[in-house]
Amino acid sequence: MTEKIQPEFSLFIAVSDVPPSGREVRFEADEASRQRLAERFDIVELTRLVGTAQVRPYRKEGLTLECRFEADLAQSCVVTLEPVSEHVSEEFRQRYLPEKAIERAAREVPGAEREIAIDIEAEDAPEPLEDGGINIGEAVAERLALAMNPYPRKPGVNFETQPEEEDDASEDKPNPFAVLEKLKKNY
Predict the structure, then answer these.
(1) How far apart are alpha carbons 29 and 40 in whole angstroms?
(2) Can you give the pTM of this predicted structure?
């Protein structure tokens, strides 16, 4: 049996802890969680991660998570490797159901095994519940990873290639087809 990995930022809410009217959860990642997330994402630092989550029941067995968060972080510039500050502000919605309910719904769709239709306007498919609930912290961490600039660059810095030296350009490079021509003549 594989060992379950503990998330760097954990905020677990069980389905049984959410009343029919829903539950609001305000969160702020502590320094240790921010440091572990910075290591996970290979960034210089994560100085702030705060937000609000609204959790409501979904289809009797599941939950809907509507979340808004903000983060301040620093990444290494892809050109100079100097720290680049970034502010991330995101909101998202995700639905969760027990794994058996997701499997049951997939079997009920005719032709689901033969054809996949993608509608970019449709909402995301439900994620499976884990241990009877959801981990808001991990959901936020995943969305933060997607929202960060994949190629951070200091303002005004451009990537410039070094021009070839004249000595390198003037060298006669062997023609690869000349070798083939010699082989052809030998046969």
Answers:
(1) 15
(2) 0.76
